[in-house]
Here is the input.
Amino acid sequence: MKIIHVIVGLVQGGAENSLYNLIIESRNDNLNEHIVISLTDKGFYGSKFDEIGINCYCLGMPRRRLTISGCFKLFKLIKKYKPEIVQTWMYHSDLIGG
Here is the structure.
């Protein structure tokens, strides 16, 4: 199953840490493919996802603002991967990922 996680950013925070732990704990199940999309940048956890082989995309949106180009990039990634599940983390991600 392909799961796309849409999150505002990947700084050192509670939601970001929870996402990282969720993926670390489930990466050996071979049943699910996790893809992480940050609305902003790679922050702290982006390189950690790269190290463990998780596809991690950054849309480059400014903090607390949605952009048309960022929304279009998200749409293209969702269309490309055709996930069974899109999980959103935090308010801005809930709005755009929904």
Summary: The CA atoms of residues 50 and 94 lie 24 Å apart. The mean pLDDT is 90. The chain has four helices and four strands.
